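thought: fold this chain, then report.
action: predict
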Amino acid sequence: MHDIKFIRENPHAFDAGLKRRGLEGMSAHAIALDAASRAAQTATQEALARRNALAKQIGQAMAAKDMARAETLRAEVQTLKDAENDASETERPLQDLLASLPNLPTDNVPDGADENDNVVVNVWNPESVLSGAPAQAGAHLQSEKLDSRFRGNTAEESDALLPAHRHHMFTPREHFDIGPALGLDFESAQAVSGARFAYLRKGVARLSRALGAFMLDTHTERFGYDEVNPPLIVRDTTLFGTGQLPKFEEDMFKTTEGRYLISTSEISLTNLVREQILKEADLPLRFTALTPCFRSEAGAAGKDTRGLIRQHQFEKVELVSITTPEASDAEHERMTSAAEHILEALELPYRRMLLCTGDMGFSARKTYDLEVWLPGQGKYREISSCSNCGDFQARRMGARFRRSGEKAKPEFVHTLNGSGLAVGRALVAVLENYQNADGSVTIPTVLRPYMRGVEVLTP
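observation:
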């Protein structure tokens, strides 16, 4: 949600921000609606004062048994009530407009139309995996420093610069080719639920559970996030708070009672602070959760129809931070680093992308995507998206904080969210990067304690 005061005081900056997101300027329209709304509020206040005066006159007329005058005054009161109801409706167009416009990008977000204009920030390659041999216990992690070939390149340009040693010594297969022999069952899910569902069975099921548990343990023990087990079904007002409604309703699964299944636990976690005034000393708040997520994938016809990449139901470890405005940029870097740590611990090649204005989410003002290398597909695929939303969601939720030792008015908090990571896509990455020529998959070293010592999944 945007601040109408900011729009009134900075109309050109507001329009410039919308233009960077491919939209027409809306400041003049918003200011006109605001003027109408404020005029209506003034009229409402005047009408209320008039109604109070009329109430006294009605009492006097009744005491004097002047019923005709009392009825005349009552009729005027009703006319004023009707006018007040009409005036209250003048605020709705402004609120609807402000709620429909996306967040404005920060100055350091690159301009662009789509994912092809995203910019490479960093590339990380563990030699143990990229040499073609799965990582062994105690393998040393090496980060490929981003040199001038990669820095600042778009995603498309950096793909053309992939090093030759990125491939296995054999031709790697995609996860949906090697997965069924290890317990990845799409056929049964098709019969039970339809397309874009899967059963995870046997070793693959345990590996998925190990990934989720490892991520939760890392984020809580190493990075200080508080673990939460949140609701999976929420109200429409909750979805409005984080920006999924009204714009993205078609992407949600709706219950017969008018509530919705969450598409990400960002929704439940961020709304933990809705309609609250927090203490500055209690910030930042950091939450994490491992939950199922549900998405209709309404706009994904024909995309990733095979495998686990794009499912109606999937698991994800989410990270959410609530902080002060001056700390949100540093918190964004910290959150992204926490997600990167998971990939590095798993020794999975990845790159960090800075999203351009045309590829950012509705509520974000700046977003980093982490893309993991999938040798079976021969490309990078998104596995995490970490966004700083500024005060955009906080305004929609009414989430504020009060500075310590000050009597100033409460300020809106800044909210951030990120995947730490998408468990299904992490499973895909492990299957493809750690596959062996015989179809077996070596378990990453850090997951073996969660696998009760199992080191290899065998077909």
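thought: worth noting. Residues 130-151, 160-167 have pLDDT under 50 and may be disordered.
final: tokens above.
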